[in-house]
Amino acid sequence: MPHALPHRLLSSLAAASACVTLAACGAGDMPSAAVHTAYELPGDRVYPEGIAVDARTGDVYVGSYTTGAVYRATPDARRAEVFLPEGAGNHNTANGLKVDAAGRLWVTDSTTGVAVYDVATRALLADFTVPGSDPRFVNDLAFTPDGTAYLTDSMRAVVYRVTPEQLAAARAQGGRGELRPQFDLRPVLPPIEPGGFSLNGIVADPAGRYLLTVDMPRGDLYRIALSPEANPIGKVTLRGGDLRQGDGLDLRDGTLWAAHNTTNTISRWTVSGDGTTATLDRQRSDEALAIPTTLARAGDRTLIVSSQFDKGGPMGPGSSKTPFAVVTFDGI
C-alpha cells in the first residue's frame, strides 16, 4: 500500500502551503512564468516524486511515490511509458532517482534504502537497506565522478555512501547490501524533533570536492567536503534569499537549481568555485507547478516533477488533475 509522509513533515508542508498564494513566501512580486507539459505520465495514482536523466541517451525516468512504479520517456516523446511496474523489487514507493555513468538506475525507497537496476535489461542488480528498525526516510542521491553514490536520510539527518566497490561486493553476495552513514549532520543542524524532517535534495560538485544538501524546513544549504578539511561540514552562505521548502536540486557548471515544493517555486543560484557561497539569480513561482518535488536539467530545459501531492495524494484530500506530468517552466 502507499506510504504516508511523516506526520510532522505533513504539518510543516501544510503550514508552508498557506504561502503559495502570497507570492510564494517571499518570492517577491516576480510575475509568473508559463508552465508547459514536457511528458505525460500514465495512471491516475502516480503522484510522481523523483526524476533522472540518462546522460548517454537523454531518456528521462520518473518515479511514483505512491506505487513505486518507474516511468521512462525518450527525448522526443510526449508521454512516458511504464519502465518498472508497481511494486517492482518489492518496493512500493520511489523517491530519488539517478542514472549513473554505467547505465544503472538507482531508485530510493524512503522506507528501506536504494535499489539499483540495469536500464538495458531492467534487472534488479542490488538492493541496499538501512539496518535496524529506527525511523528513516531515505530521500535523494547524487554521484561523484568516481561513481560513488551519496544519499540523504531526511529523518536521521545523515548521508549514506555506496562506493563502486561496495556495489560490486553486494552484487557478488546475491545483490544485498547495507547503507551505513558516512556523514552525520546532526551536530551542525538546528535541533530536530523526533520524527522531524531535515535533509532533502543533494548534489555533487562535478570535480568531486564536495556535496551540497538542503535542510528543507529551515532553508539552509550545507557543504560537505569530500577531501580532508579542518571543518568538513559547514553552512553555505546564501545571498539574496533562502532555500526554505527546498526539495530536489540540480547543479551544472556553477549554477544550482532548486525546487521549493509547497511554495510552488523554482530558484536558480550561482555557486562559488569552492562551494561556500550561493547567490540567488532568479526565483519564480506559479501554482500550476502543483507542488514541484524535484527537477533535472536536460539540455537547455529544466524538467520539473509536478507531484500534485496535495490533490488526493500524501499531503491531502481532493482529486488530482490527470494526466500527471513532468513540466517545464519558462524563464528559469
Descriptive overview:
The model is unreliable at 1-32 (pLDDT under 50). With 332 residues, the protein is mainly β. The longest helix has 11 residues, at 7-17. A hairpin with a 2-residue loop joins β20 (246-252) and β21 (255-260). The chain has helices at 7-17, 23-26, 164-172, and strands spanning 35-41, 48-53, 60-64, 70-73, 81-84, 97-99, 104-109, 113-118, 124-129, 138-143, 149-153, 158-162, 176-178, 181-184, 199-204, 210-215, 220-225, 233-235, 237-239, 246-252, 255-260, 265-271, 277-285, 292-298, 301-306, 324-329.
Based on the model shown, name its key terms:
five-stranded mixed sheet; disordered N terminus
One letter per element, helices H and strands E, the order comes to HHEEEEEEEEEEEEHEEEEEEEEEEEEEE
- Count of discrete alpha- or pi-helical segments spanning 4 or more residues: 3
Distance between the termini: 36 Å
User: Overall mean pLDDT score?
Assistant: 90
Class by alpha and beta content: mainly beta
